[in-house]
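Box 3.1 — From sequence to structure: 3-hexulose-6-phosphate synthase
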Amino acid sequence: MENYDIPPVQVALDLLDLPRAIEIAKEAVLGGVTWIEAGTPLIKSEGMNAIRKLRENFPNLTIVADMKTMDAGSTEVEMAAKAGADVILILGVGPDSMIKEAVLAGKKYGVLVGTDLIATYDPVERAYELEKLGVDIINIHVGLDQQVLNIDPVELVKKVSERCKHAKIAAAGGLNSETAVKAYEAGADIIIVGGPLYKSESPEKTARDIITSLKTGKPISTSKFKKFNEKELLDAFKIVSTSNISDAMHRTGEMRGLKPVVDFKKPLKFAGPAVTVRTYAGDWSKPVSAIDVCSAGDVLVIDNCGSEISCWGGLATLSCKTKGIVAVIVDGAVRDVEEILKIGIPVFSKSITPTAGEPKGFGEINSAILCAGRTVEPGDWIIGDENGIIVVPKKDAMEIANRAIDVKEREDRVKEEINRGNTLGKVIRLKDWELKK
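Predicted structure (token representation):
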């Protein structure tokens, strides 16, 4: 499978700021990218000026306008074509009348019209219908809000390419140096790469790796820009900070009022599913019994009603180390700090006291609890670090993990631009994006 006549690689610039988009595009072009896409966020932010500036900066390359048009197909194709686009993408879920008008306008202005299959009910059948309507490109697109659910576009590429014989097939949806060649082998004529390029510290190197994989037919392994499935959640949560997760959850999920009993000279990072305990006023029977319910890798979360009588201490913590429990959270008091520090398991509590309660046996194990202001159900993911503790509901864990990784990857790109001599305010054009009323 050597010496592929490779498909064009298209960088999707799904950013808000045009200067950053142009700089990233320049780096990607050095790596071999030949199609430059003004992503929908960029078009909404900068308008047709984004197309004009891309044409000005890349006069000999293919400029794509991802308009996501649903209405006024002819008008929007004309607008983008006159601004300098060679390819205009509209929505395949739009009415046939709009698509016909867009196709006619494309012929009139000498541009290609592509349709995005995102959100179509039956994408394979709709692709066939779109081909009959005369579109030039069918874009199989797993959007950002679907990628976090670990949806892969490759299988759909294969089905659509088998059904459609005339239109070009484009593939988009988190493709990288490991997956791009799979999309090509499945039938993609155009490889669209978004985040792995515009979030990369080196878009040039990332683009070169993708193109090399296409030329050789061999995926190039990468540890970045990957999506994680349900079985990989621990690995995913180890990559990100609680700050990343908070951003991904729209600034929610934090346990409040807890203080760590840890040695900050050692790294503080843990993640694991919750085993929950409800107990009362220093009653340590259920918290200790819950240790035997836990499996290695679990986090023990105890609702002690904020009591200032300890329900937890050194012997219980040592038992957790024996079981492989990775952290203990107590909405209440703990004692034996010197022992806990020697044992080394992260313990968080509301307060510290020398006074212990009695093992009366009140409460429940593995029921829904309220701990430090946050509802926790058995199996919810608990992630902690130096910034605090976040609770991620188990039903949303895969999505939140992947969204948090996206937050981190975007921040890593900003860090790279700051390291090159810029400042945060300038990189993100802060004044342009301050709330205006």
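Summary of the box: The chain has 18 helices and 18 strands.
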